[in-house]
Amino acid sequence: MRAQAASRCAGLTNVAVNDKDLTQLIGPFDLVTMVAVLHHLELDETLREVRRVLAPSGRFLVVGLAPPRSPRDHLWGLASVVTNPLIGYVKHPWPSHAGPQPPPFPVAEPTLSFDEVRQHVDEVMPGAVMRHQLGFRHTLAWTMPPEK
Could you tell me the sign of the dihedral formed by the alpha carbons of 123, 126, 127, 128, in that order? Predict the structure, then answer.
């Protein structure tokens, strides 16, 4: 995944892709993004480390996964059951002749629900916005307060 990201961002002088652990980064960074990553990490520690490395007014953007537990989660899941096949067909209209392929990256099932993730986020990143999305996903957006 790192190699693909580095290839896509080759030539962009404001993007760095490396294999450093978040705790090894110095910062400050204007943007930290995570797509289907946060549930692989220890949540509280990760949120604190992101907060540590963000520049004033820097952004933290996440596309995350969470198992459905609340009625609201299940309603979004139902909407995703209906829309996912349609989205899949639009993105990949021809079936693969190679058959099912293993994922090219590590896979872990999320354990914390949307509401549980929100509780942790609210403690470390007050004012963060979390929203359910289609595709069994949610988003998180937070801006580091500016320096005073």
Answer: negative
Which residues partner with 32 through β-bridges? 60
Question: At a CB cut-off of 8 Å and minimum separation 6, what does 127 contact?
Answer: 142, 143
Q: Give the torsion through C-alpha atoms of 72, 129, 117, 68, to 10 deg.
A: 20
Look at the pTM and tell me if it is higher than 0.90: no
- How far apart CA 100 and CA 94 sit, in angstroms, is 14
Q: Where are the domains of the chain?
A: 2-143
Task: Encode 78-88: b = buried (16+ Cβ within 10 Å), e = exposed.
Answer: eebeeeeeeee
Per residue in 47-68, pLDDT tens? 999 999 999 999 999 999 999 9
CATH of domain 2-143: 3.40.50.150
